[in-house]
Design brief:
This protein has six helices and no strands. By secondary structure, it is mainly α.
């Protein structure tokens, strides 16, 4: 990951948005001591789904959502972090997790080769990133159920379609 010093000012989240993101991360962090921030794992997977350039051979949105996103990423998150069922203990984050969260770049386009290529950044990406965060929040508050997948699919497709333009 890269540091926020390399990120332009207009790409950063506001203080209010950062505080809300930290609260969401705490809300969905499982009680067991994992190094990863579970909410950001889901946001990263959703971001990967919405970036059309990440897997161009998955052009069908429905197939991409169910096979690549739900079948691969979400099922991995459920089985690794919520194997005893979905519980939300509102666990505090560790210092290491705060550092990881501080280094997270709020954009939709997945940085290729591990660095933030500012030539491909578009200002709308921050707004779309917030839409992804809200969609993930609603999905996790619905306990990642099958019933919530349809609404989650619709919300992520708004971002997916905006990124294709």
């Amino acid at each position: 990951m890269e540091t926020k010093e390399l990120v332009k000012k207009e790409e950063r989240l506001t203080v209010k948005q950062e505080v809300q993101l930290i609260r969401l991360c705490k809300e969905f962090q499982p009680y067991l001591p994992f190094d990863e921030i579970v909410f950001m794992e889901l946001v990263s997977a959703a971001r990967e789904y919405c970036d059309c350039s990440a897997f161009p051979f998955f052009s069908d949105k429905d197939r991409r959502f169910h096979e690549l996103f739900i079948g691969k990423n979400v099922s991995k998150i459920k089985s690794k972090y919520y194997f005893c069922g979905f519980k939300s203990p509102n666990k505090p984050l560790t210092q290491r997790q705060y550092i990881m969260l501080n280094r997270y770049i709020p954009r939709v386009k997945v940085p290729s080769f591990g660095f933030n290529d500012m030539r491909t950044y578009r200002p709308i990406e921050k707004v779309l990133f917030i839409k992804i965060v809200r969609a993930c929040r609603d999905y996790m508050r619905a306990k990642m159920s099958k019933k919530a997948e349809a609404a989650f699919f619709e919300k992520l497709n708004i971002v997916y379609d905006a990124m294709k333009i």
